[in-house]
Amino acid sequence: MKLFFFAVLLPLLAFPVMLYCIYCPSKQSKAKPKSGTGTSLSELLRNSHRILDWTTELLAASPIHTVTTFMGIVTANPSNVEHILKTRFDNYPKGLRSTTILADFLGRGIFNSDGDHWRIQRKTASLEFNTKTIRTFILSNVRLAVAGRLLRRLSRAAAAREVLDLQELLDRLAFDNVCKVAFDVDPASLIGDEDDEVREFAHAFEDAINLVVERYSHPFLLSWKLKRLLGIGSEGILKKNIAAVHRFAMRVVRSRKEAGAAALGDDLLSRFIAEADYSDEFLRDIVISFVLAGRDTTSATLTWFFWLISTRPAVQERIMGEIRRVRSGRPNPEEGGAFTLDELREMDYLQAALSETLRLYPPVPLQVRECAADDEWPDGTRVAKGRTVMYSSYAMGRMEAIWGADWGEFRPERWLHKDVEFRPMNPFRFPVFHAGPRMCLGKDMAYIQMKAVAASVMEKFEIEVVDKERERQLEYIMILRLKGGLPVRVRERNG
């Protein structure tokens, strides 16, 4: 389930920004000479198919792991990340460019806000994520979706010896879950049982995201704004999609309000309605923001996880041993059934394997901010007011200075204390869940949900990746994904 990767807090679509902003060399750079500099446009074009790995190489080659260019500054230095996300948090808002690009889609929802407006929403959301009822609601939805839908679908595939795209199934599962948790609507996309209104919402949402991405490829706001004003090209289509998304979300908000207190449940929309007399438009923006923030993150991580362990039988066996150990603690372990919250929390090695997956393939590999006032970073880089700044979680996961000489190995043991107990990493060295005031509200629940899916699937099925030797290909628009999906064969485990 994808909702709870708030650390990921709306990937601000850094790939197009990189293409335009990062790599233009400049004589106007204010960084000290020891920092890295951008490269030529011809080099950018030659490496466009491997932009994240190329960026990582540039940052690794810099003595301070920071690259300064004419249009933007990129860093993989933990001290700089802490400075941006905590020490000078108020000096690095999302910025006018990004909030303007997303304004007609997300309004002033929590993931497209800065300052006091963001703080008000953050406070309300943080209170709700700490309640026992919302945690119970989330876990019950995951159990229903996994046991009632995903496992049944995998059983049918196993019986038919069918090759299926596991990435697509996980995407559908996550979309169903995030809609249930956000506003208690079940799209039933995993079983293909959507009604017409929900199907229109899902398709419009998907298309709107893809079209919003195009705005980041425009060097000036005026260029796409003119297309929007004239209602032509991609902006004309985007306007219709946004209208369909807003129409559906507003209908849900108003029907819930009209039904009164008796109709309020444990979903997040109900929680916000009960909290205060927010406007319909504000609640609509909240709903849309939650769905956007959570629709791809955990499914992408789980896809990478199954891909990575497919060639590592020792990792698979240790996870299976942990599942058997947890099951053995039950009075009747042979009965099976959904894992309890306490059982999932006992799975330290599985959490370590998922963390190792996130280190190598963070769902949002690059985060974008804007400098509000002249500043200087701990590594000596000077940042001018209005400058675009970015930190790369993808590059940080590949830094020898952070992870050691074996950074390129998939080794879950690096997360374990005395090879047993899960040990979290300093969030400024591992900023996949953000850090500081914008730290992910649902970090713990994200792990619980991913562990529930991974453990449930692995306990009952052997997942054989088709063509394990296929070259890894990244696909990064909104979320870092495995290009071409993950074709697998499924076999039920004996016993």
Automatic annotation (TrEMBL):
<keyword id="KW-0349">Heme</keyword>
<protein>
    <submittedName>
        <fullName>(wild Malaysian banana) hypothetical protein</fullName>
    </submittedName>
</protein>
<dbReference type="InterPro" id="IPR036396">
    <property type="entry name" value="Cyt_P450_sf"/>
</dbReference>
<dbReference type="GO" id="GO:0005506">
    <property type="term" value="F:iron ion binding"/>
</dbReference>
<feature type="binding site" description="axial binding residue">
    <location>
        <position position="440"/>
    </location>
    <ligand>
        <name>heme</name>
    </ligand>
</feature>
<keyword id="KW-0560">Oxidoreductase</keyword>
<dbReference type="Pfam" id="PF00067">
    <property type="entry name" value="p450"/>
</dbReference>
<dbReference type="GO" id="GO:0016705">
    <property type="term" value="F:oxidoreductase activity, acting on paired donors, with incorporation or reduction of molecular oxygen"/>
</dbReference>
<dbReference type="GO" id="GO:0004497">
    <property type="term" value="F:monooxygenase activity"/>
</dbReference>
<keyword id="KW-0408">Iron</keyword>
<dbReference type="InterPro" id="IPR001128">
    <property type="entry name" value="Cyt_P450"/>
</dbReference>
<feature type="signal peptide">
    <location>
        <begin position="1"/>
        <end position="19"/>
    </location>
</feature>
<comment type="similarity">
    <text>Belongs to the cytochrome P450 family.</text>
</comment>
<dbReference type="GO" id="GO:0006629">
    <property type="term" value="P:lipid metabolic process"/>
</dbReference>
<dbReference type="InterPro" id="IPR002401">
    <property type="entry name" value="Cyt_P450_E_grp-I"/>
</dbReference>
<keyword id="KW-0503">Monooxygenase</keyword>
<keyword id="KW-0479">Metal-binding</keyword>
<dbReference type="InterPro" id="IPR017972">
    <property type="entry name" value="Cyt_P450_CS"/>
</dbReference>
<keyword id="KW-0732">Signal</keyword>
<dbReference type="GO" id="GO:0020037">
    <property type="term" value="F:heme binding"/>
</dbReference>
